[in-house]
Amino acid sequence: MSLKQGYAQEMPFKNEGFDVVISSLFFHHLTKQEKLETLHETYRVLKPGGRIHIADWGKPSSIIQRILFYIVQILDGFETTQDSVNDILPTLLEESGFSSIEGGRSIPTMLGTITLIQASKSE
């Protein structure tokens, strides 16, 4: 086992080397452009038929969840977190070449709504 350090937009891995990529509470820290670059890079390192699974802040499931999410936005910045409120990850996944995009499962939390999204790389 080894540890490789790198940036999400420039992963130090070969093309088509992974079956699955999992991301948890990461994308809301990125600008829209960085999100898109990271998804393109993820697509590159996934094998055909590989899947990405994302758990991150998503569109608030109620007005209470929206109000609670302001705490996250104040702490993490509105520029990067507003994309979560606008639910743009499915669109960015599609723009990056992913297919079979499934999402919508929402989990209310003390700070907002976590949304689970998965998509696959075409075979």
Structure described in brief:
The chain is an alpha+beta fold and 123 residues long. It has a single domain, classed as Vaccinia Virus protein VP39 (Rossmann fold, 3-Layer(aba) Sandwich). The chain is built from four helices and four strands.
Task: Sum up the structure in keywords.
123 residues, Methyltransferase domain-containing protein, globular, single chain, UbiE/COQ5_MeTrFase_CS, four-stranded mixed sheet, transferase, methyltransferase activity, alpha+beta
Describe this structure in words.
This protein has 123 residues and is α+β, with helices and mostly antiparallel strands. The protein has one domain (18-120): Vaccinia Virus protein VP39 (Rossmann fold, 3-Layer(aba) Sandwich). Helix content is 35%, strand content 32%. The protein has a four-stranded mixed sheet with strand order 1-2-4-3.
Distance between termini? Answer: 28 Å
Please report the total strand number as a whole number: 4
Helical fraction? 25-40%
> Over the alpha carbons, how many angstroms does the gyration radius reach?
15 Å
**Class inferred from helices and paired strands:** alpha+beta
Q: What is the typical, i.e. mean, pLDDT?
A: 95
CATH class: Alpha Beta
Q: Would you list the SSEs in sequence order as H and E?
A: EHEHHHEE
Strand order, sheet with most strands? 1-2-4-3
Major sheet attributes:
4 strands, mixed
Q: In terms of per-residue confidence, which ranges show pLDDT below 50 for 5 or more consecutive residues?
A: none
The CATH architecture can be named as: 3-Layer(aba) Sandwich
Per the CATH scheme, the topology name is Rossmann fold
Q: How many domains make up the 3D coordinates?
A: 1
Task: Give the CA-based shape.
Answer: globular
Count the DSSP helices.
4
Strand content: 25-35%
CATH homologous superfamily - what is it?
Vaccinia Virus protein VP39
Pfam families: Methyltransf_11
Keywords: Methyltransferase, S-adenosyl-L-methionine, Transferase
GO molecular function: methyltransferase activity
InterPro entries: Methyltransf_11, SAM-dependent_MTases_sf, UbiE/COQ5_MeTrFase_CS
